[in-house]
What we know:
- This protein has 23 helices and 20 strands.
- It has 602 residues and is an alpha/beta fold.
Amino acid sequence: MTEQTFGHQLLPKSLVHLFAFVDAGVLSDVDLFVVDAMERHFGSMPETLSLMAAMTNRAVRHRHSCVVTRGWPQSSARGDDDAEAIASLIDAWPTEKDVVRVLKESSQVSCIEPGSDDEPTTPLVFDGDRLYFERQWRLERDVAVYLSTAMVNTIDLDPTAIQEMKVRLGESDQFEAAINALSHTVSTITGGPGTGKTHTIGAMLMALQLPFGEIAVAAPTGKAATRISASLGNELSNIAGVESADIPKAVTLHRLLKMRPGVAPRMNKNNPLAASLIVVDECSMMDLTTMSRLIDALPKDAQLVLTGDPDQLASVEMGTVLSDIVGEVVERTVENRPWNRTLTTARRFHSDSGIALLADAVRQGDSDRVVGLLEEDRSDIHFLEVEKDDTSEKTLRPVLDRAKKQAAELVEAAKSFHGETQDAGELLELATSFKILCAHHQGPRSVAWFDRIIERSLNSLVGQRRADGGYIGRPVLVTKNDYLHGVMNGDVGVTIRGRLGDLSIVIDDPLEPKDVPASFAGDLRSWWAMTVHKSQGSEFDELVVSLPEEGLLLSRELLYTAITRAKKDLTIVGSVDAVRRAVDNRIERASGLGAQIMARRS
């Protein structure tokens, strides 16, 4: 995968020894400019050290926190194409032994023993077999220092609370998870779809008998916050004495911590959160920086419960916080990770559900079993096999016909909708009843490709569109926060005719749908299809997953995340080779957080 370059004439001539790495697509111009700035500020570097500094910047750009020297240089590969580029420079790479020697001898590198309390004094930090920029090392170290203590800090539970949870959860893995969570200052509850994470949280909240005002619930995205709010509302609203208006409403982590771009969070150690219990859902999407800021804002005696599915796609920013905390599947034992409990009993799907079996096979990395399940064509999973980059509408007719049918139904329903905003639930349910997920925004069988075909099929039905592409019945995805109107990135809605005849957006909200003028709803785009990344925190009755033939995004985590968005019916579109490549390709971000936690624990 080739990085964009501006030509050698703009690159620092002092780094001519790195030009070949740029030409091969391993490094980018940006990496060299960063090294040049470091040399100007801290002094010139030996060639091997300047290469390692450039590779560290490359790692951060690709959401890693560090460079791993063990297995160098192939340990830095980000996929098959990247591995080939690295292999093409085999004679140019210093050996692993030489790299370690230079790092240990350099005055510009602080060598730190894993788990130690030493403080770095240089721009680069070599910790064990990982090379960091000092900022990323401190982020990991600070998070690890807090978690390694808080996650083993136990709390005595009131016997009444234990009995309350036992009544609600019975003798189950959920009961064990709830007891464990409330017995630790910081804990994790993990599990796949339909294993009862939200039900467990609801039982915990009732058993604690805390005023709901002392409980904060959050999620990384607006859509995930909407979903956990709705789920908790369903769990708690039928309990005697609980008023719907009093049930904690989830917010995004950005809103909880009062984070704004370019501004330090308003909630911090000097202005901590006013909560005794903080629950964060969908933590697979939480990045390292946000985790650090959350810890900084925790009150002294508060409890923190992190929930999610560590096998899903990681954050779009740096780090793999949840999977680092709970470890690999084989490491998630009570002995190794006493702060974690993994829910394994599927409650949403019946025992022979094809969706559940397929998700498990993907999670286990069993490509033969995955292909076998798809070829069985079960009642709830289907495989539309297509050749590489086949964009023939004839080949994809089964999927496109279903999508066009739903689109026409939604437009007709929206055109005939004249009720109050709070009565728009059925309209929103129709919009979420069927969805197409893609790996990419652009390209063959991408979000833009499906959106274009579906919207073309509506020409006679919608008539003249607005200049911004708006029309009645258009489902929309918000792509930018609008704090003034309470509309957040990831929110979804449907376009209707407003009270004054203009277009409005009915936004899906856990309390009740809300009406926002289309011109004030933040940045919008059509929502007939969406990327798998954007779908995290959402669920759909019927789902189509369109797989690319190759690329860095084609991974086990992407396929697993996509499959687990389906509730009733799933169709995979792609080739057998693409399915196998996805299952076999794991996204492995370089991180030392898990190792730091375990080193400090021991």
